[in-house]
Amino acid sequence: MVWRTRRLAEASVAVAAATALVAGCASGSGGSTSGASGDTLTLWTHNAGNSTELDVVKKIIKEFNGSQSKYKVKLQAFPQSDYNNSVVAAASARKLPCLLDVDGPNVPNWAWGGYLAPVDVSGSEVPLSDQLPSTVGRYKDKVYAFGFYDVSLTFFARKSVLNEYGIRIPTIDKPWTKAEFDSALAELKKSGKFDYPLEMGTGGLGEWYTYGYSPQLQSFGGDLIDRDGYKTASGTLDGKSSVEWATWFRSLVTKGYLSKKSGADPNKDFLAGKSAIQWDGSWNATKTAERLGDDLAIIPPVDFGNGPKIGGASWQWAMSSTCSNKAGAEAWLKFSRQTKYFVDYAKATSTIPATDAAVQQVDGYQPGGKFNVFVEFARKYAEVRPVTPAYPYISTEFQKATQDILAGADPEDALGQAAKDIDNNLKTNNYDAG
Amino acid sequence: MTTMIAALERLRPVRRTRTTHARRRESLTALGMATPAVVLLIVFLVVPVALAFALAFTDARLISPTPARFVGLRNFTLLFQDPVFYKSLRNTAYFAAVVVPLQAGLALVLALLVNAKVRGVNFFRTVYFLPVVTSMVVVSLLWTFLYRQDGLVNHVISTLTLGRVDGPDWLGDPATAMPAIILMSVWQGVGFHMIIWLAGLQTIPAELYEAADLDGAGRWHRFRHVTWPGLRATRTFVLVTITIAAFSLFTQIRVMTQGGPLDSTTTVVHQAVHTGYDQQQTAYAAAISLVFFVLVLSVSLVQRFLTREKD
Fold first, then answer.
1. Contact B197, B107 (CB under 8 A)
2. pLDDT at res. A146
3. Confidence of residue A21 (pLDDT cuts 50, 70, 90)
4. What's the CATH number where A198 sits?
5. A338 in a structural domain
């Protein structure tokens, strides 16, 4: 009898504890605020592994803390690979910092998810209207984030190699057409000097796939989603133009122009002469120019019919919606918007400064400089990734479809399945809320 | 198991002679000692499983402004229309069907070899056990390099065949990706089960072998009628642990192929993590986990039934 009662008691204690825990987890959405204790604000950045950019952040914080006595900003840096997960975890625990940086295409998702608050930076030294449009993170007509720089996609090649095979070096006014590009690759392949004449970083998984290849899809006339209302991907992602892109993309592999899984460091392989033309980002331009000098040709994206395209938006700064000291957070954001910091960021990251005034002061990027073409690319060709909270999902689906296409899947099936999955996701999620 | 029950039976008459007071003290001690484990189990096992069950019927997302709503069986309807899910099931079954007999058998052979009383046997025990103590992530990364088109594996193949055979791109070809991962997984895991078999082998009394020798039994008969029956309990343990480990195949996939090429290596657990984290579909991932739980449970029950003590 005693035993039975005890067992019963033990069981009920266990059940009660479990229920309490479940209940505790479920009710985690109390509307508390955090991210600051009084006038000390916490700031998160993804730059722990990138000391040059981190130094700029530290410098701005130091000068901000010294410029006034009311607010103090405290830095916490994360490695990039863990950053997004840390933010998501912090958000579920209602422990977001006041200030944080965010990758451009994620802004709508985080704004919709209630992580970010709209920011008002009017009255700062640099007005938003001076910036490259792709460096301002907007969602539903509100500004949620702004960046100090942008990056551009580009081809790198050696002028000497192109001349040797009689390939025209394209200019911004007259980029390569699809036919020209295909025949250039055929010529280079025929030479037998390159296992794979084209290097596009196919081994780099993750966001690079969407960032690097969806502009080519758009240049063919396709897109990731129907941008009119962002309600469906069917008919766009699996439409005729998109299938044409996929068929062409797969043909690069079957014709032996492109490795379906390139090495860990594509730029290094290109510099070592393993490939003739590399599709890369402007962030590698300084390094490549140092090695190749005047032999380096910076080539605009190919015009596949719908004009050359590159992706827009890089890392941007934002304020969390749970910030308990929004005035302090906005003070920091406004303070950071000085031309000298735009210059510092661009120099530290070898990226495109977001304003004209800063462009004038960064070596190589000022008009006439060897990297000024990137500013032109960003201005003329930039297409931001779909501005919808569904973007992270769309991106993973596109990555999978592209990988499957490279591995030999039927282009229509692969894109059709991706479009179907995206439509399901759009239907089952209330992306208009928030 | 049998020994435990036997031990308990032996204890019983002793207990009866004790006073109620002593008994209560004893049970309090037992309760105190069990508490840490019970609390940990509840927090990290019971609660997550209960949450996963509940979440599977909602539209919860990793990032969302709206609270999770009950949506009935929608996740399961979607799941059973998802072609990738069927591929995941097929790949998981394929992996388990090959790995369970292969790894168990190979581990037994190794155990028999290192159980021999020869000099230097400790060296081989250590060598076979080394991959087990190495992190699976590290092992997977290394083998990714070995399996490259221009990697070591293909160099060896080319040298052995005097350059006549060019190995495939092991992880890049849908036909070879899963076999390549199976080979690596067996290599990594076989040492652990070798140790388990070895422990089992050493519980078999030497007298039984002596008796068999006196009866003139050969090597095979000695294995068949002394060793094999003596490994009964070990066999069940090895079978169950390898099966469960095989079903939860994830790390290798995540590091080496991410489920590709053409879904040839996607598994149920990999799909659950991919949808739950990379794609933020918490509820859908919970539904996958629930189905996975039911599958593993039924396989375990079947195994339990087949290996039950038949008396």
1. yes
2. 93
3. very low
4. 3.40.190.10
5. yes
CB spacing of B31 vs A10 below 8 angstroms: yes
Look up the pTM and report it. 0.82
Phi, psi for B220 (deg, rounded to 5): -65, -45
Closest to A333 in 3D by CA, of A117, A157, A86 = A117
Task: State what percent of residues in chain A have pLDDT above 90.
Answer: 40
Residues A175, A94 share a domain: no
Task: State the Cα–Cα distance between residues A172 and B192, nearest whole angstrom.
Answer: 61
**In a shared domain, residues A210 and A299:** yes
Q: What is the pLDDT of residue B133?
A: 87
Which of A405, A429, A431, A432 is most worth mutating to test chain B (most B CB atoms within 10 A of its CB)?
A429
Q: Please identify which residue in the block is written with the tokens 């990734």.
A: A385
E strand or H helix at A297: strand A296-299
Total domain count, chain A: 2
- The pLDDT of residue A2 is 46
Q: Say how far apart CA A134 and CA A378 lie, in whole Å.
A: 8
> How large is the ipTM?
0.76
Contact between residue A314 and residue A46 where contact means Cβ atoms under 8 Å apart: no
Query: A154 has which bridge partners?
Result: A280
Judging contacts by C-beta atoms under 8 Å, the chain A residues touching residue B27 are 6
- Per-residue confidence band for A254, with pLDDT thresholds at 50, 70 and 90: very high
Residues in chain B with CB shorter than 8 Å from the CB of A6 are 27
Contact criterion met (CB below 8 Å) for A147 and A354? yes
Any idea where the domains of chain B sit in the sequence? 80-306
| Contacts B172 to A, Cβ<8 Å | 260-261, 407
A331 in Cβ contact with A341 (< 8 Å) = no
Among candidates B54, B85, B136, B99, which has minimal Cα distance to B292? B85
Characterize B210-239 residue by residue with b for buried, 16 or more Cβ atoms within 10 angstroms of its Cβ, and e for exposed: eebeeeebeeeebeeebbeebbeebbbbbb
Give yes or no for a contact between A59 and A66, defined as CB atoms under 8 angstroms apart. Answer: no
C-alpha span between B291 and B53 (Å, rounded) = 10
Q: Nearest chain A Cα to B65, which residue?
A: A113
Q: Write out pLDDT tens, residues A377-393.
A: 988 898 888 888 888 89
Domain assignment present for residue A62? The answer is yes
Could you tell me which residues come within 8 angstroms of residue B283 by beta carbon, excluding any fewer than 6 positions away? B55, B56, B57, B58, B59, B60, B61, B68, B71, B75
Q: Is-contact A136 A128, C-beta < 8 A?
A: yes
Side chain identity, residue B302: V
If you count them, how many residues does chain A have?
434
Domain extent, residue A230, equals 153-311+390-428
Q: Which residues on chain A are in Cβ contact (under 8 Å) with B261?
A: 403-404, 407-408
H runs (alpha helix) in chain B:
2-16, 20-41, 47-55, 74-79, 83-114, 121-133, 136-146, 152-160, 174-203, 206-214, 219-222, 228-230, 232-247, 251-256, 268-273, 282-306
Pick the CATH number of B80-306 from 1.20.1530.20, 3.20.20.70, 1.10.1740.110, 1.10.3720.10: 1.10.3720.10
Query: Residues in chain A whose beta carbon is closer than 8 A to a beta carbon of chain B?
Result: 2, 6, 10, 14, 17-18, 21-22, 25, 29, 85, 88, 91, 109-110, 112-115, 205, 260-261, 389, 392-393, 396-397, 400, 403-404, 407-409, 417, 424-425, 428-430, 433-434
Residues of A with CB below 8 A from B262's CB? Answer: 404, 407-409
Residue by residue, DSSP assigns B200-269 as HHHHS-HHHHHHHHHTT--HHHHIIIIIHHHTHHHHHHHHHHHHHHHHT--HHHHHHTTT-STTTT--HH
Neighbours of A240 (CB within 10 A): 11
If you measure CA to CA, which chain B residue comes closest to A430? B66
Of B24, B47, B66, Cβ closest to residue A22: B47
Which residue is associated with the tokens 């209602």? A94
Residues of B in contact with A109 (CB under 8 A): 63
